[in-house]
Amino acid sequence: MGTEMLGSALRAARRERGWSQSGAARELAALGRARGAPTASLASLKTQLSRWENGHATPEPLYRELLAELYGNAALAVAPVPEPPADAAERLRGLLAEADAVGEDALALLRAQLEASRRLDDRLGAAGAGAAVRAQVEQLARLLTHTPAPARRRAVAAVLAEAALLAGWQALDQGLLDESYARHEQARNAAHEAPAPALLGQALAGQSAVLSELGFPGPALAVLEAAPADGPGAAWAATARGAARAAAGDAAESQDAFAAAERAIRAAPSVPDLVQRGWALDYDGLHRRRSAALAPHGDADALAGLQAVATTDRVPVRERAALRADLALALAHRGAVEDAAAHARQARNLAARIGSDRVRRRLDRLPITRAEG
């Protein structure tokens, strides 16, 4: 069967058992544990189930075997056969026509659509906005591929870079590190074509964050060497360098990097960025990132700053959950177990609401699990 047919079969099998996608994810995870097979987190499994059922992705062999056993259908374990392609020339004509229809008005609508998704993400995280953002990235990538005119390509590339950045941060939060790295690479390439140095700097910062999450401090710093030399892109890269240095235990080098980021922000034009305001890095954003990075290393000023920003509602929910987790970690290291447990509970509640596997895994490393309860 083809990918779409496999997706329909998976959806029908799940509905036949009366399971929601969340329920199917729990059953699949339990089966994986029983068979000793490594599976993703529940939030990630739910996302993957949705993509498999919609025909947007094909389950890997391990998951096909588990799904076949879960649903009692051996045919699900067979690798999908590609659908017979339509006439290639006709398909290309259609894609070129679709891209040609995207003029300035349509591009403005695509920007507005992305801005709406970003605002939804600020409130609900990837759980509420992830599917919409992935669809926008796929649409914009298709348009860019089939747009021949250089000026129009640059305009589409700028919007694609923003969309891929948002998708990359969402995937990182969901624990989908391979997808996050790929989305940031997509944003990096689009930012080069736009050209958009500020977005390039953030794309590199995203890749650095993924590499740090994997425990690769050297590559996390090396990827930032391709950052712009000045402006907002340089500020993003310096901020990421500060976070990577702190994660590697080098507080002094981290301080220097954050100081460089502040100098880059100070040197940048002070005119508000009305087009890309969701991706801007200002003094407040730098302060939050510096506090989160250095508070666990005994920096009293950073801890005080983190305590001030972790409880505010003026930052996106994904960042708020991460700041709470960072504060819990910093307080636990100082022996303030009860305060750490209180912030850990808040962070865990936010993480459950938005499907943040990254925050949950960070909290699982805290030596206060029983105090949380």
Automatic annotation (TrEMBL):
GO molecular function, one term: DNA binding
Region of interest: Disordered: 1-21
InterPro entries, alphabetized: Cro/C1-type_HTH, Lambda_DNA-bd_dom_sf
Protein name per Swiss-Prot or TrEMBL: HTH cro/C1-type domain-containing protein
UniProt source species: Pseudonocardia asaccharolytica DSM 44247 = NBRC 16224
UniProt lineage: Bacteria, Bacillati, Actinomycetota, Actinomycetes, Pseudonocardiales
